[in-house]
Specification:
- This protein has helices at residues 7-18, 28-35, 50-56, 105-110, 133-138, 148-154, 157-169, 175-184, 193-204, 212-217, 220-224, 226-232, 245-252, 260-268, 273-276, 290-304, 309-321, 331-341, 346-358, 362-384, 398-403, 410-425, 432-442; strands spanning 23-26, 44-46, 60-64, 69-74, 77-83, 85-87, 99-101, 120-122, 126-128, 141-142, 172-173, 278-279, 285-286.
- It starts with 6 loop residues before the first helix and ends with a helix.
- The chain is of the alpha+beta class.
């Protein structure tokens, strides 16, 4: 087997080898290269101690020197070089209390999480695969190195990583590993919100976000997102749906592009339904105001998982408007919808709405998709005609109004909003002269 190592990584390995040390590319880059995927990083492992690595290269950064990692900088690009090590006792379910450097590559590979991530390679000796990683790649299988219970006891985040790798690679999880995932899932409560968030995003933005189902089946969501478990247990007895709330959510995830905000929106869009569900005397379920409650849950959970403010804001807004249906099939009706939903959000609203429909009862989906297609056609027409759809397209600005004699202050924003509403109704009114006159009539 031959792997094409990038020139800079090859130079680092050559420098270490010329100095009498062993050096290999290792881990995810080996896995991805074998699979024909483009590695995001090229990590290197060596028996050289950190200070010996630093002595060989002009520019290095002590990124994790306590654990044996030095980043070597070549031409502005960084490569992590880590000394072979044996991890000591794990004190917090995530990090070893101490590490011991070892001259043995095999001992270093033993400490890694999954067999597909425990392979090393260099051009002299080829592939070093002591744990059957290549066979697991061929069989499309995620399997722990050694005993799964030991691996998950050492680092509980590996529990979530197992499912994430299965989603990213479209692999199954080996039976013993999967059983241990469920058995050790409660240990995820020890992991920081930031680490959980990173794995959740990687899973959701993978090619197979529906693997979220594994998180539910193994009890992981009971720890990191119990709000979802309630959705799986909530039926939807009405003409629009043929799945439980949770099953519907799962089916919407692959129907939008692998964008963080869109996938999170689909995860949360109906999460408020269990709280508002009411069954009438005829046995039909109703979910009035579920968008507002879902928005509230989304905000609570996203803040709990330490998402950035912009992501929280965008997801909350899309969740709130996802079920907005009052769009007349006229240019004016679409302009009004864009005005109410927000021009910056409207393209994503259309994507969310389509995904929602595609996971509903197929009997009614065809007409809904036809209706949505007409809205999209009219929206494209408005864009082509360059009609005003937001304040930035308005022919007057706040400065124009001030220069014309209107006092600055809160009233200025209200005036601009009123002018925008006027133009939404009557696009021909979007001229500076007309709007200045209209502004002072309003005042």
């Amino acid at each position: 087997m031959q792997i094409q190592i990038p020139e800079k990584a090859r130079r680092i390995i050559a420098a270490l080898s010329d100095a009498g040390y062993e050096a290999y590319i290792v881990g995810g880059c080996v896995r991805d290269a074998i699979l024909g995927r483009e590695p995001s990083d090229w990590d290197i492992t060596t028996n050289a101690k950190p200070e010996e690595v630093k002595a060989l290269f002009q520019r290095t950064v002590d990124t994790g020197i306590r654990h044996g990692t030095v980043t070597v900088l070549l031409g502005g690009e960084g490569f992590e070089v880590t000394t072979y090590r044996i991890d000591g006792e794990y004190q917090d379910g995530r990090h070893p209390k101490q590490v011991t450097f070892t001259p043995s590559l095999l001992e270093d590979l033993k400490r890694r999480d999954f067999t597909v991530n425990a392979m090393a390679y260099n051009e002299s000796l080829g592939l070093i695969d002591a744990f059957g990683g290549l066979r697991d790649l061929e069989d499309r299988r995620i399997r722990c190195v050694g005993d799964p219970g030991e691996r998950f006891s050492e680092d509980a985040l590996r529990i979530l990583r197992a499912v994430r790798f299965a989603a990213q690679l479209d692999f199954s999880i080996e039976a013993k590993t999967l059983e241990a995932v469920g058995r050790f899932a409660p240990r995820l409560s020890r992991i920081s919100a930031e680490r959980i968030q990173a794995e959740v995003v990687k899973l959701l933005t993978s090619d197979h976000p529906e693997a979220w189902r594994i998180l539910y089946e193994t009890g992981i969501t009971a720890v990191i997102l119990p709000e979802f478990d309630v959705c799986m247990e909530t039926p939807q007895e009405n003409a629009h749906h043929c799945f439980s709330v949770g099953e519907h959510i799962l089916r919407t995830l692959p129907e939008v592009e692998p964008d963080k905000v869109l996938r999170l929106t689909m995860l949360f869009h109906d999460m408020g339904k269990p709280r508002v569900r009411v069954r009438d005397g005829e046995g039909t379920d109703h979910f009035i105001r579920h968008g507002e409650v879902s928005e509230e849950i989304a905000g609570t959970v996203l803040r709990r998982l330490k998402f950035d403010n912009d992501t929280v804001r965008r997801v909350r807004h899309l969740v709130r408007v996802h079920d907005y249906l009052q769009i007349a099939h006229t240019p004016r009706g679409v302009r009004r919808a864009v005005f109410r939903i927000g021009e910056d959000y409207f393209p994503d609203y259309l994507k969310v709405r389509r995904a929602d429909i595609l996971a509903q009862n197929p009997q009614g989906a065809r007409e809904k998709l036809k209706s949505l297609a007409e809205v999209e056609r009219l929206y494209r027409q408005e864009l082509e005609e360059q009609n005003c759809l937001s304040l930035k397209d308005l022919a007057v600005t706040g400065r124009d109004l001030i220069e014309a004699g209107m006092p600055a202050g809160p009233g200025l924003g209200s005036t601009l909003a009123g002018l925008l509403e006027l133009v939404i109704e009557n696009p021909e009114c979007n001229t500076k002269e007309y709007l200045l006159k209209a502004a002072f009539k309003q005042a």
